[in-house]
Design brief:
The protein is of the alpha/beta class. The chain has two domains: 144 residues, no CATH class; 148 residues, no CATH class. It contains four helices and 20 strands. A hairpin with a 2-residue loop joins strand 16 and strand 17. The longest helix is centred in the first third of the chain and has 30 residues. The chain is elongated, with a radius of gyration of 27 Å. About 11% of the residues have low confidence.
Amino acid sequence: MKPGSIIVLIIAVILVIAGVITCLAAAGMAKNNGRDQELFTQYRDGKTYCRKDFKSSDVTRIEIRVPDADIRMTGGAPTSYVEVGNYDPNNDTISTNQSSVVIEKTTGSSAAKFWENGFSFFKGFRNLFHTLTSGKTRGKMTINVYLGDKTSVSLVDVEARNCDITLDGIDLTDKIKVSAEKCVMKVTDSSAGSAITVESPSSKLELDSVTTDSLNVSCEGEIDLVAVNCSFKNTAVTAKDGRIDIGNVQVGEKIAYDITSKSGTVTVDGAKADEGYRKAVDGSDALIKIAAETAQITYTNVKPEEPPAPAETGESDG
């Protein structure tokens, strides 16, 4: 073999070894930073989807940190997993550890992020093409979280700029917490042990058959809150304008009320209260506090459904 060929071969071997060491080191760094390498990515209908399975019996927290997204969480699924649509592998991350799943979007150009994270996230030149063109082609992120029956998730925490959130059939032992500049949220057939908390300058909330110890909503601007067939022990809602309509199956017998709207209307159990509705109770076990500037407020106590009477058998004593 010619000396020149031997030199080229030696250089090639050195480069291969260096490449393998670099990849292993980068993978280790990614793992230490919570970035999961076991992600299934596919392209469907011109969009990038990334899926990650997890054991719901181990995960206790789901955290979402994104600017804009359509978020949907569904309980009672056969298996637990998260699927992110319009996924950008260099600006979006799905991090998992023993107790939490974190979905977040970082800032910065896709190309820069590729070179920063390329060794650990490079998945071929087709993916590189999608990465370099992501700023022009990707649409709004969609996040679908499916929870299995044996879930131990206690907390769902969402921070976003604009978000549409749908929660259906989920049961949490602790709370649902949402902080967004603009929030459209629909919750059905779900429960949160301690609280549902929403902080947003502009909110549209639709709650149906939801149970929690405390409903806390803070809205500096316009609100559209409708709750039907719900059960909240304590309610704390503040808003400026809009509509607040709550039908609540109250838990507790000693209920204190403080419901006011400075230049709006207040209706409690079908009766209008021009100056608001206040009722102090010594040793109260529940508090309904709603305050607004010009919002229209309707609060209705719904009686719990009584169990059906036993059916008559039609048999006589004789």
